[in-house]
Amino acid sequence: NAGVTQTPKFQVLKTGQSMTLQCAQDMNHEYMSWYRQDPGMGLRLIHYSVGAGITDQGEVPNGYNVSRSTTEDFPLRLLSAAPSQTSVYFCASRAPRGRGGYTFGSGTRLTVV
Amino acid sequence: DQQVKQNSPSLSVQEGRISILNCDYTNSMFDYFLWYKKYPAEGPTFLISISSIKDKNEDGRFTVFLNKSAKHLSLHIVPSQPGDSAVYFCASTEFGNEKLTFGTGTRLTIIP
Which of A20, A80, A98, B36 lies 20 to 30 Å (CA to CA) from residue B24? Predict the structure, then answer.
């Protein structure tokens, strides 16, 4: 089973370009989230979703858009890339029942030049 | 304002001994706590969690302790193995809230 799949694994963007980071899960999880990891700052929540059609902002949402049209997919869009968005991005999902932890994808390393 | 703090960026432990990783939090609304393990170039992997109604939870070699009055939790790994070398993150949240707040991580190195 694939779990949480993120594409691409690496990406270099020029300042001002836009792009979409893809995230798909095959576990029928209702809850999905996007985090970014920066040196010395742990993981910070960008946006999250508790089901198809429902999204909400996390701690650092500025410059990012999300949508959740299906249970499986939760893409993250960078509207106009900035060097401050250079980071490693992780997508995660979990089932709503119980209190288990999120299952994370392997990450997308994004560099904005 | 860092609501979840891991004050030790790194820790080295001899193989076979106990590893103790610490985490402090400031938000008194947090009632659910998790530990994740992360290898380089991989996503974090869920290890163990604890609810605020408990003060201890055990899963094999991993035990998490929660001291609510001190707003402190710790992860004990016994015995430590070379495969335990990784970065460990603690995370906290409120019941029903999907917003996990992570600490900055502790890099654990197990010395053979």
Answer: A98
